[in-house]
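Structure, all two chains, one model.
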Amino acid sequence: MEKVYSRPKSMTERPTSYCPGCLHGVVTKLIAEIVDELEISDDTVGVLPVGCSTLGLFHFNLEAISAAHGRAPAIATGFKRCAPDKVVFTYQGDGDLASIGMAEIMHCANRGENVTTIFVNNSIYGMTGGQMAPTTLVGQKATTCLTGRNPEDAGFPMKMCEIISQLDAPVYVARFSLDSPANILKAKKGMKKAFELQMEGKGYTFIELLSNCPTNWGMTAEDSIQWMRDNTMKEFPLGEFKVPEECE
Amino acid sequence: MGAPKKIVTNKKWCKGCGICVEFCPKNVLELKNGIIDVTRPDDCIFCGLCELRCPDLAIFLEEVSDEQ
């Protein structure tokens, strides 16, 4: 019997550690598939900071570095400068990247470091217990805003693609969603483009992936995907915000 | 059409999130005792959406060789 689908070689043979229905598993799988397709598994290094993305340490069959909370872009910068022939990516959540790691991501992007950031935005702190994140939607409930995010005291959701695309150095900035098969395939295509641009030495690439958090949103996996469509995807429009000049 | 296919599940890895059940266009799948079950295999059109959407690599398609 020949398998039509086989587990990516760049993933370890173990069940994922994410909550039931969490789309982090899809992101992990997509990264592993892309690494396999580009045949770069021996030359790829993931930098995984604190949060649900940390669990990728168990699931990527790749070299991986654990970083302090929010500091993955700084670690990636150092590693890439020491080993420019390696393909380096950071795998970060919204609490990590847009809050405690805001300085690191902005300066890494502004310097145009030749690394790729995979940014999983589920609009809440996941592993730490469902607190309000910089990306939490106005009115969305979290453990630190029980009646919903109030912009008068918490401001508005951070739109990272829009912010990073204003910088001169980044070459590819795009936002995709994981809510449907069509969007998952578009996300994979965009992620692959980001890795390829890095391999060509073009510079900094940033991929934002809209995801869910059934556990901390307090709903079923199916309902969380519908909630993404009704809310998250309206607040964070999909698309390519910055592309290399030859792609325009 | 290529070789005939069959749907395969890895029940040990299934967490019962229900994404594949909810989005299967042919209602082939059900959760039984919180675990995926291929209840109506004859209705499966082998579109592979369950395989694509499963966050836990717990369901996929296999090609069945002619000898089997």
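The mean pLDDT of chain A is 93.
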